[in-house]
Amino acid sequence: MEKKQIIDNILKSAAIESLNPMQLAVLSSSSPQLILLSPTGSGKTLAFTIAMLKRMERPSGELQAVVVAPSRELTIQTGEVIRKAAVGYKTATFYGGHPMQAEVDSINGAMPDIVVSTPGRLLDHLTRGTLNGQSVRLLVLDEYDKSLELGFLDEMKRIARKLPRKLALTVLTSATRLTEIPQFLNLDNPETIDYTDRTEAPRARMQIVNVESPQRDKLATLTDLLLTLPHDEKTIVFLNHRESVERVYQSLKKAHFAVGMYHGGMEQRQREQALDLLDNGTTPVLISTDLASRGLDLDRVGSVIHYHIAPSHEAWTHRNGRTARVDASGTVYVITSEADNIPDYIVFDRSLSPRPQCDTPSASSTSTIYINAGKRDKISRGDVAGYMMQRGNLNRDEVGKISLKDHCALVAVPATKARQTIEAASPYKLKNKTVRLSILK
């Protein structure tokens, strides 16, 4: 693909005015082997998409490019970014937690040009022969160090053995400097594009605040802090254990906070839903383990709260990377008690004693309407938006984020209009399909 067309597609799909220096460096590179290092939120996905598009051949009915991502969430989000930018190419996302047969059927319909997948599911397809690894020319190992951390080294080795030994492009990415370069990829003097230092440091746009808890149990302090923060500000609260996440979530929900929960023990559908409701503002507070600390593209998170001290410097960095992304500012709150040992890498800018102005949280100003039809029903975001305005009697600016899944759609609307919108739209079909609408809790 020509450089001008690549740039035009990227700018249009990402709704940005220009490429950043890291993306321009990738655009200028002619190396067939790249190591791309840059902080979370700096545009790495667009950068390696540029690298792929430069080397993509015309669609020929064969798989050309494979992107391996360590988590389902990152796979889904990366697939969306690439799908929008790779105009004229078919992009498919494969991951565990949903039926394998649905993916096989999509391949039988038309072989994708690009596959974004978790390691295990990709290896499964290559082993079964539903994907032909020998046609692959381009390989990206996204968040490679995270894949190692999660124990996917063996899967990645086995994937590499099913691909041609010599590829037109191999890319490794990381938000931090890699401590281990994979020998199984046979990299020969790869070019390293390192923006871990040169990218504008998020720390410059970030305030680190010490919030002292008078008790070892920090729940009361967290409650007071949340009541102090701006209404509807997106906030992620990090804890070290799933059991703690569930306890804090249940306590805050009982206290009528608009709150969501996220950890690795939840079903994939529940996890996706929790992220959607955070992202569209329905539940602006998310209680999570470190699973939410990387690989998620969440827009404008205003605050990060460390309920528990991060277990490592790396975890501290990745948690904080959820806020102050790109050009935004953010605040990091660390709730401390006498039981905590504060590591050297945590340096406070100021202290805060929360003083809530009210005793109860305000209700969220946003609700989410669930529609039981999605992409597999040949429905687009435009179809959903038009339906909500024409049949649901909403103004254009009242239709918020639309999350379109295979079999459903989630639409953010003003909380005060959710029920009347459902009543108005329910008697009508959506693109000739009878649908059911409900408020997602």
Summarize the structure in words.
- The structure is a single chain.
- With 441 residues, the chain is an alpha/beta fold.
- 32% of the residues lie in helices and 19% in strands.
- The protein is built from 14 helices and 18 strands.
- A 7-stranded parallel sheet has the order 3-4-2-5-6-1-7. The protein has a 7-stranded parallel sheet with strand order 10-11-9-12-13-8-14, sandwiched between helices. It has a 4-stranded antiparallel sheet with strand order 16-17-15-18, covered by helices on one side.
- Strand 16 and strand 17 form a beta hairpin.
- The radius of gyration is 22 Å and the shape is globular.
- The two termini are 45 Å apart.
List the helices and strands and how they pair.
Elements: H1 3-14, H2 21-28, E1 33-37, H3 44-55, E2 65-68, H4 72-85, E3 91-94, H5 100-109, E4 114-117, H6 119-128, E5 138-141, H7 144-149, H8 153-161, E6 169-174, E7 191-194, E8 206-212, H9 219-228, E9 235-238, H10 242-254, E10 259-262, H11 268-279, E11 285-288, E12 303-306, H12 313-320, E13 330-336, E14 350-352, E15 366-371, H13 381-390, E16 402-404, E17 409-414, H14 418-425, E18 437-439
Parallel strand pairs: 1-6, 1-7, 2-4, 2-5, 3-4, 5-6, 8-13, 8-14, 9-11, 9-12, 10-11, 12-13
Antiparallel strand pairs: 15-17, 15-18, 16-17
Helix pairs in contact: 1-3, 2-3, 6-8
